[in-house]
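**Fold tokens**
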Amino acid sequence: MKVGVPKEIKNNEFRVGLVPASVNELVNNGHEVCVETKAGTGIGMLDDAYQAAGAQILPDAKSVFEQAEMIVKVKEPQAVERAMLSAEHTLFTYLHLAPDAPQTAELVKCGATCIAYETVTDRNGHLPLLAPMSEVAGRLSIQAGAWCLEKAHGGSGVLLGGVPGVEPAKVIIIGGGTVGFNATQMAVGMGASVTVLDRNIDVLRHFDAVFAGRVQTVYSNAHAIETHLEDADLVIGGVLIPGAAAPKLVTQAHLGRMRKGSVLVDVAIDQGGCFETSHATTHEDPIYMVDDIVHYCVANMPGAVPRTSTFALNNATLPFALALANKGAKQALLQDPHLLQGLNVHRGMVTYQDVARDLGYDYVPAAKALETH
């Protein structure tokens, strides 16, 4: 199979779909890999390294899309990239379609086979291709929140860990999944006072056991969220419903009950955000204020540390990329029910139920869509 890796063009996005070692694995399996020039520069991987791994270097994205059968990316294709997709392409990347009607419409129209990292599952029902970026984003959320709390950035001027004689910041983490767990590790490590809210009692038991009483665990409901927001310095939103738009758990009315200069970090912004007042921002312009509350809603948080993020992502995606290349997309998808869960759009059909529901498309089960076309 001919595999293509274009340079990422989303604002301040420096990750890359395949590192040279991953390219080498594909080449050793008999595949051709073409990489857009300077695709890996942002993580210190120059064209020479890709050539040494067996890749062909192409001058622009257009050349990559024209030559490749499978496109391996990191972020969702931007409008100019979507215009280069056709029914002959398999697209393997993060998509986050539920809150993005324009992207979904164009992917449906082009007829490509579009596999979303964020909905591929494993035998335990987890999301193995989302997990590494959730780990990075969870850890970054605390760094970003600490920065936002500084007075110069609109925050209340509270040091996350406090100092002897002065209490630390109060951090509220909504959602005890991968984001929440990694955010908790960082916040506890920095000396903050941490409360985790989740609706799964087993998750709360896990936090209680792992953090040995250093974290307060609270069953999440509307009243609990409202109560804990009142004295929060930093709130991390890490709630995920796989493939679907995130629920709005903090409303604008809640902001009026919070202290001025408190910070909201919405890690769920890729799926539309779990705060009512959230809208996507960029690393170039990451924050804004609503009712004197700082909002940090960068839609590609792991892009801030692209080298770490790229290697972590490749560790997870490479086995699936190899399967798709070795077997062909249709056979690989039909033989692996977990990879099949990643299929969101195929030949003009929406094949992920939550995306179809949220955006008003007819839902066609993935296996049926593949067997039809």
